[in-house]
Each structure stands twice: as C-alpha cells, then as structure tokens.
Prior knowledge:
Elements: E1 2-7, E2 10-13, E3 18-26, E4 32-39, E5 46-52, E6 58-60, E7 68-73, E8 78-83, E9 92-100, E10 112-113, E11 117-122
Parallel strand pairs: 2-11
Antiparallel strand pairs: 1-3, 3-8, 4-5, 4-9, 5-6, 7-8, 9-10, 9-11
Amino acid sequence: QVQLVESGGGLVQAGGSLRLSCAAAGRISSSYIMGWFRQAPGKEREFVAAMTWSGSSIYYVDSMKGRFRASRDNAKNTVYLQMNMLNPWDTAVYYCSARSGCFSYTASFYAFWGQGTQVTVSS
C-alpha cells in the first residue's frame, strides 16, 4: 500500500506561482510512476504531469510545458509540482497519484491517490 498526502494549494493571483508537494509513504519503489492530475468543477480529471520515482523521465501535457515542472526529493519521499504563470483556468483540485509499471495519461490506471489540494487562481 502507498499513502499520498498533498499540500501547498491555495489562492493566488493570475501570473503567480505555487508549489505543490506530495509526501509518499509505504511501498514506493523505483518502478513507480508518480502522477499529477487535476479536476475542475464539472470536468473530468485530467493529466498534468508524471515522473518516474527515480526522476529519470518526466512527462507533461503540452499545454503546461514551460509553466509546470515536476521534481522529486527521494530522501524526503516527496514529489513536487512547481506551477508558474498561473491563470484562472488552472483553478482545480490537484491530485497526486501513483502506479506501478509504465507511464500512463489515464487516471483510472493509477492505483493510489492523495486527498487533493485546492488551487484557486483569481483574475
């Protein structure tokens, strides 16, 4: 079992930045993929970024490349999502997730989820 706890969400003005953290506990291994997803009201959960637990490979949605950056600190068992140049349509609940195996854009393929953290961007 893997437990994930997100933090770092909040209210920010358009153009601002936030860094989300996801602390992982349990049986995390180098084979795990750590994913970031978001879900806005009335919308489906969408892929944001993912990385191997080792950090050797990182994947982004094209629209977020250059604005968002995923990273990890294995010593702290924590992954991060740095979000810059935020705009109102980035407003959503952001979730950290994990799966064993290969990379996937599909939320349902991730077995473990955090509780989510709210990000609100005001115009």
